[in-house]
Amino acid sequence: MKKAGILNRHLAGALAELGHGDGVLVCDAGMPIPDGPRVVDLAFRAGVPGFAEVVEGLLAELVVEGATAATEVRDANPEASELLESHFPSLDLVSHERLKELSAGARLVVRTGEARPYANVLLRCGVFF
Fold first, then answer.
1. pTM of the prediction?
2. Catalytic pick from 10, 20, 87, 96?
3. 10 is catalytic
4. Is residue 33 within 8 Å of 24, Cβ to Cβ?
């Protein structure tokens, strides 16, 4: 049994399978999930777990070379916007519709219980060397 880090066995296993360039969509409870990517659904109740908590946990375990979010997050969800921009100074912003299109190419979707709008980010895995 692991004693630290992500303890959810489905999520830990899915993260171990990721490689350079793979996409990981971290999304709120309302984001449409496309057919194709593996899904680890962490949503328990509205707001649990929250977007920030899941993003922070993933960033502690993954090498991320880039991230894409919806432009709408800036006005509709300033807390999520600040979180993303603090971690990703070169955050790519696209329309929410475009983010939904891009999410179809993700290898993994991690659904949170977040109930605030536009709390979604598509992470692009990097390499540790």
1. 0.96
2. 20
3. no
4. no
